[in-house]
């Protein structure tokens, strides 16, 4: 068990390293894989031994080896978060290896969507589409879309995607009427469609429920801490990503049962 935990943690660190590449490159419209990583200040390529997740950051004391420019705490933080998220999925779903491989591969997409939305209020289409495509690949391995036959699972996924899109489109329309400005971006609508392909229509509802609670809580803290004004927008993508993650981890049915039991039992 210890060996497997270690393996999943290392796999998560590698994925986290890739998440950092996405966070840096996707908003600038650069390729995901080429050229090799380089320091954004002095542009000298980063050697493999300086590119080891977390360890290199510690050994270089957070500075570029060549120009001593600060690397930024975002890099080890994203790597660590990705490793923990991966470890949890892995231990939760062992031995469903197909599902583990695909759901953990979604982690760098979720983390980069989160970081980019926090910084720019945008959810790049390339990341959202890739998440949706991975969701389609995951259909045969899914413990969530548990139809007796593959075509039924595929229908559940497509129905989930459609439900996610329609629900968010509807909420965006209501939001615009109520607040006289854009309340939900087009990126949120597309992200929920991609999420629906993974978790089906029930998962869409549970994701929305969790994301709304988490987002409201976060907004309240920011307002009380006087970080933002009452009418300032907050990005919704990070909370959709987090809500979705809990669905991947526990499945919508189990989360719903937990909520219903706590609300309706004396
Ligand atoms: Zn440098």
What's this, in brief?
The protein has helices spanning 2-25, 55-59, 74-93, 97-105, 107-120, 125-138, 150-179, 186-224, 237-250, 252-264. The chain is mostly helical. The protein folds into 2 domains: 1-94, no CATH class; 122-266, no CATH class.
General description of the model:
This protein has helices at 2-25, 55-59, 74-93, 97-105, 107-120, 125-138, 150-179, 186-224, 237-250, 252-264. It folds into 2 domains: 1-94, no CATH class; 122-266, no CATH class. It is globular, with a radius of gyration of 20 Å. The chain has 266 residues and is an all-alpha fold. The mean pLDDT is 93. Helix 1 (2-25) runs parallel beside helix 5, helix 4 packs antiparallel against helix 6 (125-138) and helix 7 crosses helix 8. The site of zinc ion has 8 residues, from loops.
């Amino acid at each position: 068990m210890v060996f497997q935990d270690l393996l999943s943690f290392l796999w998560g660190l590698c994925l986290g390293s890739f998440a950092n590449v996405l966070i840096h490159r996707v908003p600038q419209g650069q390729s995901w894989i080429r050229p090799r990583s380089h320091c954004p200040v002095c542009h000298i390529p980063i050697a493999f031994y300086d590119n080891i997740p977390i360890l290199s950051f510690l050994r270089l004391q957070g500075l570029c080896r060549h120009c001593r420019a600060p690397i930024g705490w975002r890099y080890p933080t994203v790597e660590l978060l990705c490793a923990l998220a991966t470890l949890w999925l892995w231990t939760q779903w062992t031995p469903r290896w197909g599902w583990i491989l695909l759901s953990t591969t979604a982690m760098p997409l979720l983390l980069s969507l989160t970081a980019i939305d926090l910084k720019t209020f945008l959810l790049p289409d390339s990341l959202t589409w890739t998440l949706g495509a991975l969701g389609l690949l995951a259909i045969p391995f899914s413990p969530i879309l548990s139809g007796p036959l593959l075509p039924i699972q595929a229908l559940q996924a497509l129905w989930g995607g459609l439900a996610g899109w329609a629900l968010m489109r509807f909420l965006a329309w209501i939001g615009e009427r109520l607040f006289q400005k854009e309340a939900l971006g087009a990126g949120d609508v597309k992200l929920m469609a991609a999420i629906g392909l993974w978790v089906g229509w029930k998962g869409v509802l549970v994701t929305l429920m969790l994301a709304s609670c988490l987002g409201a809580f976060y907004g309240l803290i920011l307002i009380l801490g006087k970080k933002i004004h009452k009418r300032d927008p907050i990005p919704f993508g990070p909370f959709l990503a987090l809500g979705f993650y809990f669905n991947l981890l526990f499945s919508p049915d189990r989360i719903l049962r937990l909520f219903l039991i706590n609300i309706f039992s004396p």
